[in-house]
Amino acid sequence: HGGPFANIAHGCNSVIATKTALSLADYVVTEAGFGSDLGAEKFLDIKCRVGDLNPDAIVVVATIRALKNHGGAEDLVKEDIEALKRGFSNLKVHVENMKNFNKDVVIAINHFESDTPNEIETLKAWCKENSYPFAFTDGFIKGQEGCIELARKVLSVLENSKETKLNFTYNMNDSIKTKIEKIAKNIYRAGSVEYSELAEEQIKEYEKRGYNDFYVCIAKTPQSLSDNAKLMNVPENHTLHVKRINLSTGARFLVPITGSILTMPGLPKVPAAVKMEESDGD
């Protein structure tokens, strides 16, 4: 995966890259950036349609830190079982969203050094209670050996599953508003969609030009299911605010700009390359 990022674009690699990999390997793993509400939705609803791809399974990567964050924990390093449990609601939405695409889902518990044994066991127990296939993965600390459990779990799911067709979120012949609203309500769990005056005018113009059959690639914050980065966990009956809709005619994309999202990725004041050159104070 080399970008562009899924909060402002499609968030996955090229169709050519994936098809090349499929021609060379027995199994292909490809990343869809950010949360499943962004990268995975666009990978499945856009890229898989464009490339006539049909993935066999989906891996949802979860971290205890992120779940505690959604559960309202103030200190993500300190053990907080109750905050972790509250955050399970967010993970459940992501998993159920992926299952709605008619694919088997595996949860990868991505280990951080600060995760406590109690927290890890609590998450594993929740996965078992909900009959969600899962695997503990420790690739950052242990390298490839730390990923063996996940690889075996995915292989087991593949060996015991039947080939299924993707259940897309929207139909290509849906109206522009219907496509946006199906994503908002079925993936983001929004209660409604609100369009600015500019967005309303753009939709009318795009419909006149015959762009109804374009893909919808929503630009939205990755920090929340809503378009408000401060609304954590699973916001109820929230409104998706469409400020404008950018047009990418070459890609056949309609790009609704929501909330306060910026389409230019933010970069640090001091480039990471500067730190790479620092050694022993030099």
Provide structural commentary.
By secondary structure, the protein is α/β, with parallel strands linked by helices. It folds into two domains: 15-159, Rossmann fold; 176-258, Formyltetrahydrofolate synthetase, domain 3, CATH 3.10.410. Helix content is 39%, strand content 14%. It has helices spanning 15-24, 36-51, 64-70, 81-99, 117-129, 139-142, 148-159, 176-186, 197-208, 272-276, and strands at 57-62, 104-110, 134-137, 192-195, 215-216, 239-248, 253-258. Strands 4-6-7-5 form a four-stranded mixed β-sheet, sandwiched between helices. It has a three-stranded parallel β-sheet with strand order 1-2-3, sandwiched between helices. The two termini are 33 Å apart.
Q: List unreliable stretches of 5+ residues.
A: none
> What CATH architecture of the largest domain would you give?
3-Layer(aba) Sandwich
Approximate shape: globular
Helical residues, percent: 25-40%
Task: Give the number of helices.
Answer: 10
What is the CATH H-level superfamily of the largest domain? Answer: P-loop containing nucleotide triphosphate hydrolases
User: How does the major sheet shape up?
Assistant: 4 strands, mixed
Question: What is the number of domains?
Answer: 2
Secondary-structure element pattern, one letter each: HHEHHEHEHHHEHEEEH
Q: Beta-strand level of the residues, as a percent range? A: 5-15%
Rg, rounded, reads 20 Å
Q: Average pLDDT, to the nearest integer? A: 93
Main structural class: alpha/beta
